[in-house]
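Entry type: protein chain
Record version: 2
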Amino acid sequence: MSTNGMSDWAVDLANVANIYPFPGTEFLLFLAGLAFWIIWHVLQFRAEKTELRHEMDADETGDKARKAISRY
């Protein structure tokens, strides 16, 4: 399978253009990766916050969790 039309690697590599598929989409892929990374962090923070609240509610008074959090 050839994505760039090259049939032989015995060429002057200085004259070879991109040898990977979809050249020119690097910036779009970067933006998609950056958006995924930020969204993942937001979702992770929300999940951890919810989990922490459940742990505090499971404690009868919530004092243990509050003391543990206030140390940091």
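Comment: Helices lie at 26-58, 63-70.
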